[in-house]
Structures are given as C-alpha cells and as structure tokens.
Amino acid sequence: xxxxxxxxxxxxxxxxxxxxxxxxxxxxxxxxxxxxxxxxxxxxxxxxxxxxxxxxxxxxxxxxxxxxxxx
Amino acid sequence: xxxxxxxxxxxxxxxxxxxxxxxxxxxxxxxxxxxxxxxxxxxxxxxxxxxxxxxxxxxxxxxxxxxxxxxxxxxxxxxxxxxxxxxxxxxxxxxxxxxxxxxxxxxxxxxxxxxxxxxxxxxxxxxxxxxxxxxxxxxxxxxxxxxxxxxxxxxxxxxxxxxxxxxxxxxxxxxxxxxxxxxxxxxxxxxxxxxxxxxxxxxxxxxxxxxxxxxxxxxxxxxxxxxxxxxxxxxxxxxxxxxxxxxxxxxxxxxxxxxxxxxxxxxxxxxxxxxxxxxxxxxxxxxxxxxxxxxxxxxxxxxxxxxxxxxxxxxxxxxxxxxxxxxxxxxxxxxxxxxxxxxxxxxxxxxxxxxxxxxxxxxxxxxxxxxxxxxxxxxxxxxxxxxxxxxxxxxxxxxxxxxxxxxxxxxxxxxxxxxxxxxxxxxxxxxxxxxxxxxxxxxxxxxxxxxxxxxxxxxxxxxxxxxxxxxxxxxxxxxxxxxxxxxxxxxxxxxxxxxxxxxxxxxxxxxxxxxxxxxxxxxxxxxxxxxxxxxxxxxxxxxxxxxxxxxxxxxxxxxxxxxxxxxxxxxxxxxxxxxxxxxxxxx
Lengths: 71, 587
Ligand SMILES: Nc1nc2c(ncn2[C@@H]2O[C@H](COP(=O)(O)OP(=O)(O)O)[C@@H](O)[C@H]2O)c(=O)[nH]1
Hints:
A: mainly beta, B: 2 domains, 8% strand, binds guanosine-5'-diphosphate
C-alpha cells in the first residue's frame, strides 16, 4: 500500500521510498513509523507526523512511498 | 567592511581574523545568531529558505577580531541543491585555523544530528550551538548536553538566540577551540549508518516527557487540517486585511493626514514664501504638485500607514511559522496553476513589495516556479504602496469599487497563472516541506524587523517619489505636459475615457506603482473613470526598481518583455472596461 492511501490518524511503517534526495535528508527513511495527520483537499499534500515533527509530502511523492499499516 | 553577499566560497579575510562559519539546517535560528553576533540586520523568518546566498559580518570579542559567515541552511551536504553546493564549498575551503559553529535545533534533534555528523566528518574545529532550547523545554524535550558533547566529541552550547543566551559562550569557545584543535581522522559513514548513529545518539541524550500539548502545539496541528484549518486561514486573512485596511484608514485620517496637512505643509509653504516669490519655482515647490506638498503628503500621509501596517502583519505571520501552513492548505489550488503551495509566501510578500518577493523566489525549487511567481507578482499583485493609493482613490468613493479592483486582480492572477503554466517549460517540484513549530514571535526581533522594513520603504520610496513629483510639477508648470497629453490623447481620452491630465499618472507610474494612481486623486473623476484608472494602474509597469530587479535576475530581454506586456494589458483592459461601462450607462 502507498502512504497516500492510508487513512487519517493511521500509523504505518515505511517500507520503501523513492529516490528523492530531499526526502532522505529530511529524515524520511525505511523502517520508520509515521502517522497521517491530515490530507489536504484537491490533490494537496498529506501531512505526516514523525515523532514531534510534521512534514508535508506532495501527493505524487506520497503515492510512491510504500508502507505497511501498523496498529 | 559591511554586509556582503555573493556567490562563491573564497572569502578574503585578514591574517589576524578568525573565520567562523555558521552552518545548520534551515530555520534553526542561524540568521538570528548571525545578527546578534555581528550586530548586523539580516532578515529572519520562521520558514525554510531565509538564507539563500551567504552573508558575512565582523565580530569583536575581547580585542580579538573575527569574520562570521552565515552559510545557507541545508539538510545535508551532498551538494545536490544550490544551497548545499555553497555550504560544501565553504567547508572544503575551510582550514583548521577556522571554526565551524554548527547550529542545531533542539526541538528536532534527529534531523539536525544527521547534518552535525556530516559536518564533523570534515575534521575541522567545530562547536555546536543547541538553539531553541526554550521551545524544546515547553514541548517537554530534555537534552543531556554533557552526554551529547561526549557523543559528538565537541563542545555543545545551549542557546536561546533571540534572548542572547549562550552567544558569548559560543564566541569564547570559538577562540578556545582553534588553539587546541588536533586533527584526528574521522570515519565516514554511509547514509544508513549515519541514521543509525543518529538514532543511537538521540536515544542516549534525549528524553521526551509526555506532556500535555501546549496551546500553540494544538493550534499548530489544527491549522494543518482542512477542518478547522481552512476557516482559520480565512479568519487570519480577514484579520490581516482588517488591520491593514481598517487601521490604515484610521491612522491616515486621524494621525498622518492632519499632521501633514495642518502642520508640515503650511510650514513648508511659509518657509518657501520667505525666499521665493510666486512663479514657476514657487509652484514647483509648494504649488498644486509641489515637491514639498505632494512629495510629503503622498508618501507619508497616504502610503506609509498601509505599508507600515502591512509589514507588521507580514512580519508577525512570518515569525509565527504560520505561512508554511497556509502554503500547505493552498497547495491543492496552486498546483493546478503549476506552482506548489510554498510559493504563497513570495506571493504574499508581493502584496508588500515586488522586490523581496522576486528575490525570495531564489529559494523556490524550480526555475519554472521562479519565473511564474516573478511574473505573477509583477503583473497582477498590487504592492502595499499601491494599495494605499487605491484606498485613497477608491475607498472614499465606494468600498464596492475598491473590492472589485481586488477581485479583478485575483481573476488576473489565476488567469495569468493558467496561461503561464502552459507556456513556461519545466515541471514544478512536488511539495516536500518541514512544517516549523508555531511560535509566539519574539517582540524584540519583530519590532526590529518591522522597523528595518519600514525604513527600507521610506528610503526606497521617498527619493523616487520626490523626483517623480518634482518632475510632475515641472512638466505641469512648463506646459510640456500639455504637449505630451496632446500626443497620447487618442489613447487616454478616446480609448480610456480619462481626462487628458491623466497622462501624468501614466508618466509617473513608470517610476512607482502608486504614482500611477495618486495623480488621479485630484481630477474629480466619475465612478467609471475611477475604475478604469485603477485597472490601468493595477496592470501597468511594475515600477522602475522592479524592472531593475527583473533585469538583474532574468536579463534585459525578459524585463522588457514583461514591461511591454504589462503596458499592453493595462491599456487593453482599461479600454475594454471603459467601453463596456459606457455602453452599460447608455442602457
Ligand atoms: N523561541 C525561540 N525562537 C527562536 C530562537 N532562535 C531563533 N528563533 C526564531 O526561529 C525562527 C527562525 O530563525 P532564523 O534565524 O530565521 O532561521 P534560519 O533559517 O536558520 O536563519 C525565527 O522566527 C526566530 O525568531 C530561540 O532560541 N528561541
């Protein structure tokens, strides 16, 4: 499943990320557990929460991040 | 030597001066530290990308001299973005006689340590400033500084940059560490190993208390959800508008206009009449378009209140960290125009002044976005000074008229966006953005910033304004205006339906945007004429300084094209509205 399709307030573990330099230096990496905080309307970004940080990730990118839902 | 910004990392310094490089992630408070250390004013903002090129300034510390260089903020050192290239160049050019101050954001240790470890690999004398500890504390984040020093093998100094806490210590350590630095080889980690190391260190040094989220944290989260984020955004924008327009009108009517009209202008007239007898010179100085009358009334009484209030609002929004949140909310809409939501920041800045907005696009990710935002700001976004002029011209006549001009500017913005998206090549970068903490802005740095910007406006605007008004007085008094008006009469009178004196606005409007509007004040125009005049002024050339910036950033050809297009659109739509209006009036 991809990050973009995960429901609001759900948690997931990141399995595979696309090769995107900025994504990596922002600390998004495989094995990390994150949760979805909100999804913006009209194809806007998803906001993920990693620890205390919030990150906005465009739909295009979020669709390429593979995840596994955890509860 | 004062402020100095350039590209390239070879910086000349004297032998007895210590070179100090400030390195860190974006938005960790580097600009604040820099300006506190050097006493220089640099812009700070609570979002990514305040520093694009580097800035340098001098420090003195107990009779020793140094040069501090504020290197652009980066997330890593892999030289894949322009900012990273600059940072890597600086590190490669640094020697063991230089000092690196690596600034860390205590609220975000993981991400910052990732950079810290990369900086350490250069084996240069390095100290770490653990900044924003005040915010970390309120969030329940506690960091064991001693353990962190052990792990990093370098001094770590907790700082609260905005309150000057820890900054002397930073300088003290800087001189100390170069003296006893011994270069030991440091093993290079690959990306995965580095993140593991980061994780390990974070686990050792950081404790997060499960505290109840503070009000600001809760509010911060709310602003990121469509509900209630969108209503909050609408509320924030309405309040901002209310402050600028409403308070501005009040300030203008109750404070600035009375002072200028009852005290300053009579005073000037009196002084001038002591030395000059009635005649051309007298009129140029204190006549209808007198330099000492309009040259003071226009900028100070009509424009300054709005510019001042706009900068209060903008600076507050910037430092609070709200703007990136707005960017996230509008991303869906803006990406339809081919630019990602983050560009809302330069667009909003454009409502103050187009110049910082265009320069600010350097931080945006793709060239396409730079071009698009710069053009949009030049064509369809009225600056604060012009807004002030519009309010004087239209607001007193009818609020509806004022509102329709702004609605028109939004329509133009959207339409130009759609067109530009089709004709400018390139794909926009997808949005990838760290959302900063929502902070209560620090009053002191806020005031400094507002003052800095308002002063900037007065210096930038007053000279061209005086020259413009002087020029206007001269052409009006000598009859040159009449001859020019005669030439452009078909255009101004027949096509636009404006009185021929309106030519003056078109001449002056080249110099500054608000000068395209202000001369219309004195002409007793009809409602339709007011609207047409406002439309022409809205689209007309975006002032000389902006054209200058466009030339510098994108080249002469581009700037001329944009100017020509704006003039064409201005006349085209002005005329169309005039004819439609007249037609409707006949019905
Ligand atoms: N509360 C608090 N705010 C800070 C501190 N240092 C910086 N700030 C604020 O954090 C924001 C980012 O600072 P800035 O210097 O622009 O970051 P830069 O991008 O690293 O240059 C600004 O709004 C500052 O006022 C600090 O120690 N405490």
